[in-house]
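Continuing from the previous page...

OK, I double-checked the sequence for Cytochrome d terminal oxidase subunit 1 against my notes and this is the correct one:
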Amino acid sequence: MELNIIELSRLQFAATALYHFLFVPLTLGLSVIVAIMETVYVMTGRPIWRQMTKFWGTLFGINFVLGVATGLTMEFQFGMNWSYYSQYVGDIFGAPLAIEGLMAFFLEATFVGLFFFGWDKLSARAHLIVTWLVAIGSNMSALWILIANGWMQNPVGAVFNPQTMRMEMTSFYDVVFNETAQAKFVHTVSAGYVTAAVFVLGVSAWYLLKNRHVDLAKRSIAIAASFGLAASLSVVVLGDESGYGVSHSQKMKMAAIEGMWETQPAPASFTLFGFPDQQARETHYAIHIPYVMGLIGTRSLTTEIPGIDQLVAQAEVRIRSGLIAYDALMNVRANRGKMTDADKAAFENHSADLGFALLLKRYTDDPRTATPEQIVKAANDTVPTVWPLFWAFRLMVVLGFAFIGVMIWFFYMVSFRKMQFPRYALWIAVLIIPAPWIAAELGWIVAEFGRQPWTVDGVLPTALSASSLSVTDLLLTLAGFVLLYTALFVVEMGLMLKYIRKGPHIDVHETENWQKQHSARLAPATLPAAE
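Thanks. Re-ran it with the corrected sequence; updated structure tokens here:
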């Protein structure tokens, strides 16, 4: 299989995934913010909160529809572009993906429809329940996607079956409660909450700058600042927990993020700044903060974090071990599925390293014929390109702490300064609207690029996972996806800006009149007294 086919397949999936994730974070966070606003409306009965719910709900709806549309393509790509991956691990990966599809199209779609078309049909409390179900459904949909992705990062609850030549699930519980998946879920969802909070804050600040919809804007800022402060703090805490998990399940990714070429004495220092040089195997002009990396990665002062060079040496050992498992597997195939006791013992003892032997498929059709030089090359292939991971992680962290600072400042102004915001602060709130999306995309680059050269970490190399497509097929479909997704992105931006400029489509007085009429319609009819 040609390497350029692999790279083009990766590029196509990366492009569609990054486009799709432009819509996902806002859906996750805005659904919860809208539910909070409607909760206040039901508790207080004040029409301004219903007005806010409908306005931000309209923006949520636009984003939700386009998020679903862009997500569909990604699921089909597993079968079209990554057919060997789908065949090899489909028994495990397919289950959470199918559940997510059912939730997205049946649960979410149903309640989203009731949210928009149920205002005149449902009581206030019934509609509030629907709104919270929309928020819960949106977040649970993300859970199942991240369970599937988390399994790719940390493949637990499954084993390779030499009879079927496929990975098979042994514990659905282990797959669902995979610590990597759970850490990714809470971290990703909290990042979505920050995205929505910054969005609401920025749009509301724009209204205040234009002196429009002032009551709605001030109340929206109050919700965004308090919700955003809690979310931005949780992103940092949960991100730290995610990093702790990576240090156990994906040691090479952790070492690459840190640009740690050689194992340091415990506790390892954190590289605040530097220029990683992959050829020289060093980080130039590095500025270190003592102890920090050791505390993040191990929660102790005595445990080492292995460096890249040490992990490459371990990979070479695992490749040689995996060759024993591969040889046993080929004997089973040659004997038409029959496994001798010797082959069974050899495979069971070395099956955990089978994926490392498959790295040699890049250099030879039969890994058993690999030369020592090819084994060394395959071991070095386990190192991802370091500099994108190194810088993406640090920029993401800087943005995360910046969001905390912004939210603390606005929360203080809301709580103690009677919402008297200086114009420069409002402009800052408007200008940082894109920043959470940048941070989220950087996070996915760290997670996915850092997993290379694996599709399923330690199990299936990316170079084996793709379909046998032509370069022309991939170039044409890549161009088609980029054009289509760009068009969808332009459509969303146009609709969002249109409705933001328009503002709430009804004012508070109209809302009050509607509320009186709606209450009268839902009230039980009064029967005439018997004569």
